[in-house]
């Protein structure tokens, strides 16, 4: 169950992270979860909407749910994806949760995975989101226990891009415009390994051929 999405129009309607201040809705959900014993549920959430302490008012309700895990991004919805992580509040929530907790947020390197594991041995797991898009090799690097070179990371990233591009080319039927509108937003994350000037050429491409040429120049 998604109680972590910070997209403002959804939050204003009480959806996504907006649910965090709607204890009545969460209580109703809890009753259904407890009655549906043939299903497995989990929750991904933030600490609050405006305040990182909002979770305190609902943790009791969440604890009543038999969840497989509770994933926490230790920011508020109003922070979106920027600003400090509220680690003190996260630690407090971790202590109070009766469900297994997974950490999520600002993990972009294998060393950061190790740091979280070392400082929070009681965690049930770690989730990567945007960090995995910025550095698709990070999980492989962690398993190998070594930081890949820039050349290795770029090669892995471009292989991933190629697979996604081929999938879009085969499944989308709206021509160049539709494919480009789907693939270009990925460079907001994939582009962090390259000079901004090179990424701008990719974003400005208005045909598949122009796009392919711009991407090839990254290799």
Helicity range: 40-55%
CATH architecture term of the largest domain: Alpha-Beta Barrel
Strand proportion: 5-15%
Largest sheet: 5 strands, parallel
Rg, nearest Å: 20 Å
Poorly predicted regions: none
For the termini, the CA-CA separation is 40 Å
**Total number of domains:** 2
Mean pLDDT figure: 96
CATH topology of the largest domain: TIM Barrel
Number of strands: 5
Count of separate DSSP helical elements: 12
The run of helices and strands is: EHHEHEHEHEHHHHHHH
Broad structural category: alpha/beta
CATH class of the largest domain: Alpha Beta
Shape, please? globular
Sheet with the most strands: spatial strand order? 1-2-3-4-5
Write the topology of this structure:
Elements: E1 2-3, H1 8-12, H2 23-35, E2 43-48, H3 59-63, E3 70-76, H4 87-96, E4 101-104, H5 110-119, E5 125-127, H6 130-134, H7 138-144, H8 150-171, H9 175-183, H10 187-190, H11 196-204, H12 208-216
Parallel strand pairs: 1-2, 2-3, 3-4, 4-5
């Amino acid at each position: 169950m998604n109680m972590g999405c910070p997209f403002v129009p959804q939050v204003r309607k009480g959806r996504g992270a907006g649910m965090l201040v709607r204890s009545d809705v969460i209580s109703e959900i809890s009753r259904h979860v407890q009655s549906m014993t043939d299903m497995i549920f989990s929750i991904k959430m933030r600490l609050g909407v405006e305040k990182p302490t909002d979770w305190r008012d609902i943790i009791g309700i969440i604890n009543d749910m038999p969840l497989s895990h509770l994933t926490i991004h230790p920011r508020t919805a109003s922070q979106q994806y920027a600003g400090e992580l509220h680690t003190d509040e996260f630690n407090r929530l971790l202590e109070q949760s009766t469900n297994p907790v997974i950490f999520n947020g600002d993990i972009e390197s294998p060393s950061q995975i190790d740091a979280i594991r070392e400082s929070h041995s009681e965690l049930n797991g770690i989730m990567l989101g945007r960090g995995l898009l910025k550095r698709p090799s990070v999980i492989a690097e962690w398993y190998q226990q070594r930081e890949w070179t820039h050349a290795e990371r770029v090669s892995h990233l471009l292989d991933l891009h190629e697979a996604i591009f081929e999938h879009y080319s085969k499944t989308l039927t709206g021509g160049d415009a539709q494919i480009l509108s789907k693939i270009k937003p990925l460079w907001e994350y994939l582009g962090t390994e390259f000079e901004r000037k090179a990424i701008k050429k990719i974003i400005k491409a208005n045909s598949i051929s122009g796009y392919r040429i711009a991407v090839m120049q990254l290799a």
